[in-house]
Design a protein that fits this description.
This protein has helices spanning 15-28, 57-62, 70-73, 96-109, 135-138, 153-170, 187-200, 213-220, 225-228, 233-247, 259-269; strands at residues 3-8, 33-38, 75-76, 81-85, 119-124, 144-149, 176-184, 205-210, 282-284, 296-299, 305-307. The chain has 308 residues and is of the alpha/beta class.
Length: 308
């Protein structure tokens, strides 16, 4: 049975880089992987397929293609790797999230999920957890959700929002958070920030990846590190990550923060604890609304919380 994983994260955090290199690493270890690009930019498979731009589901549908077959949308991503790109409308036109919903309908009809893949990866657009882009976690296609993050303020903000989406869907389904994957520029600076954030929302860090010029060099050549520089120490880091994901799955339901509480937490985390809090603002401590059972606290002067 396949392990299905969705990867979310703030736009630009390096999510597609992480996913494509992880896919290559698992294939190197002998696993079969289906990587599904769920972004209208259709760039998830850029470092895997031989030809770019790739074939996309939305392009085929727009061209009037009916009764699609697996060979129409499956692309060769290398040995033991298949790739699919949903694509989307032109920028500013239409709804890309709707296209993602249509993708899963087509994949079901083609019985793609009945194929004997070891892993199915969903590389999902940015930090969006709206109805369309939440389909992998909302509809049960992805059982584990990993959030790629850096130690930057907005990246952690997005990670908390994604954790809120996971918690919402976990209450009625089987989706669980798998953890954070840290993709950072300065490990010494970012590590304590990410560790504190992970502890606060009830999750853990699967692994840390620090920026390395060999990753940049591989991407300039539209490939992954293991294919570009298999003997580089960074290639072994991707294999380490693949082994950790395989050997130690730790699915759980996170405990994200509400908006106001998150702002205060991040202000203190980044050393801005002297910033004035929104006096009198009621917030919840677990990311849920009061109507859903969230514990309410009221923020006083300086952002200090008092029991509600």
């Amino acid at each position: 049975m396949s392990r299905s994983m969705a990867f979310y994260g703030k736009g630009g955090v390096g999510k597609s880089t992480v996913v494509s290199n992880l896919t290559t690493a698992l294939a190197h270890l002998g696993r079969t992987v289906l990587q599904v690009g769920c972004d209208p930019k259709r760039d998830s498979s850029r470092n895997l397929v031989r030809h770019f731009p790739p074939v996309t589901l939305m392009d085929l549908l727009a061209a009037g293609k009916a009764e699609l077959e697996p060979d129409d949308i499956l692309m060769d991503g290398g040995e033991r790797i298949d790739c699919i790109e949903v694509g989307g409308p032109k920028p500013g036109v239409g709804c890309a999230g709707r296209g993602l919903g249509r993708l899963f309908e087509e994949l079901e009809e083609m019985e793609i999920f009945d194929r004997d893949y070891d892993y199915v990866f969903y590389d999902v657009l940015g930090d969006v957890v709206c109805g369309g882009f939440a389909v992998p976690m909302r509809s049960g296609y992805a059982e584990e959700v990993y959030v790629v993050t850096s130690g930057e303020f907005m990246s952690l903000y997005a990670a908390n929002n994604i954790a809120r989406g996971i918690r919402n869907y976990a209450e009625d389904g089987d989706v669980r958070m798998g953890g954070l994957i840290a993709n950072v520029k300065d490990l010494e600076y970012d590590r304590p920030l990410i560790e504190a954030f992970a502890k606060r929302i009830g999750t853990h860090v699967v692994d840390y990846l620090e920026w390395n010029k060999v990753v940049y060099a591989a991407e300039r050549r539209r490939t992954t590190v293991l294919r570009h520089a298999p003997n580089d120490p960074m290639a072994e880091r991707w294999l380490d990550l693949a082994r950790k994901l395989e050997a130690d799955p730790r699915p759980h339901i996170p405990t994200p923060m509400g908006d106001a509480e998150l702002d205060l937490f991040l202000e203190e985390l980044f050393g801005f604890s002297d910033a004035p809090g929104p006096v009198g603002c009621e917030v919840t401590t677990d990311g849920r609304s009061p109507a859903a059972g969230g514990k309410v606290v009221t923020l006083g002067i300086g952002g200090q919380a008092t029991a509600g």
